[in-house]
Amino acid sequence: MKFIHLSDLHLGKRVHEFSMYDEQKAILEQILTVVDGETPDAVLIAGDIYDKTVPPAEAVRLFDEFLFDLVSRRLQVFVVSGNHDSPERIAFGGRMMAGAGIHLSPVYDGSIQPFSMTDAYGTVNIYMLPFIKPSHVRRYFEDEDIVTYTDAVRVAVKHMNVNFRERNILVAHQFVTGASRSDSEEISVGGSDNVNASVFEGFDYVALGHIHSPQTCGAKHIRYCGTPLKYSFSEIRDVKSLTVVEIGEGDPLVRTVPLTPIHDMSEIRGSFEEITDPLYCENHSQRDHYLRIVLTDEYDVPDAVGRLRLIYPNLMYLEYDNARTRKNNRIAGASRAENKSVFALFAEFYELRNNAPMSPEQSEYMRALIETVEEKAL
Ligand SMILES: [Mn+2]
């Protein structure tokens, strides 16, 4: 039996105020092309369908279209709600849609019924566990000791009463201990949302969502497929992909199919002069990328964002790497202002802002300017 594992679509997401709508629409179409080539029996979507609990209308339309396109291909779709989703809104209409092959995780109520599929080797049960916190599980099992996220998932799994003589797949959205994070996930305060991978023992494959870089968690069959698109600059080196899982007799076969966005996300570094040089930017493959530009100029370039966007239209984020930003020293001994000359105060202010004193030329210029102003004031 063949599955395609997806997660963290984050439909409706904006990255540094850039709408990802066109990228998401295109990547879903690309996923459908892969589905046509692979002809899987089912598609597993492990949470964070939307970026917000109340998603924008265009994101809902996009997902509706995607679900319709999937089930038109006569396969089963399993959708679990993630921490960014509203479990009630994801669950809406689920009992009616199940008949059409769209399985939406119900709001967690202490019991999880699997959906079973069969092939030449027997039965495969698919369990959908929506994103849960300890409090969600505790209210249904007062006799169980549920303190941590590991406890919560362990108890939820225990009460699934899984028949481990058959093959079983779990679709879930949690942070498994040891997985390496990026900047576009929502991190819980104190990082206490860890789930120990041991709670998944016995499953043939655990299709995880939540972590945005594709990776396995110790064992090959416990896996994050990652986001289909890069949603933060900490992911610029990721190769985004979808995961294909084939379950036959023994261990599942797991492989990835790379996904290519319309615009990649990357970083450019250099001085303003260097990176605006026509020789540098002509035919530059990164020109259309979603960019973080790191300027190495010692002084802020006036209207740098506006001017750089004329060349790099998808510039998302600009920062400086220079003496001022590298050091964050405080100037010691800043004393009472009234005892100081205007020049001394300005020199101090300049040094605080730039982590370096004025050059002799700048000092000379400021001294003359202040003199002129003070003369006029008299
Ligand atoms: Mn996510």
Describe the structure.
Helices cover 29% and strands 24% of the residues. It is of the alpha/beta class and 378 residues long. The strands form 5 sheets. A 6-stranded mixed beta sheet has the order 6-5-4-1-15-16. Strands 7-8-9-12-14-13 form a 6-stranded mixed beta sheet, with no helix packed on it. The longest helix has 18 residues, at 21-38. It is elongated. Mean pLDDT is 90; it is low at 329-334.
Reconstruct the topology from this structure:
Blueprint: E1 2-6, E2 14-15, E3 18-19, H1 21-38, E4 42-46, H2 57-71, E5 76-80, H3 87-91, H4 94-97, E6 102-104, E7 115-119, E8 122-129, H5 134-138, H6 149-158, E9 167-173, E10 175-176, E11 194-195, E12 205-209, E13 215-217, E14 219-224, E15 241-246, E16 253-258, E17 265-270, H7 272-276, H8 278-281, E18 290-295, H9 304-311, E19 315-320, H10 323-326, H11 342-354, H12 360-377
Parallel strand pairs: 1-4, 4-5, 5-6, 8-9, 9-12, 10-11, 12-14, 17-18, 18-19
Antiparallel strand pairs: 1-15, 2-3, 7-8, 13-14, 15-16
Helix pairs in contact: 1-2
Bound molecules: manganese (II) ion.
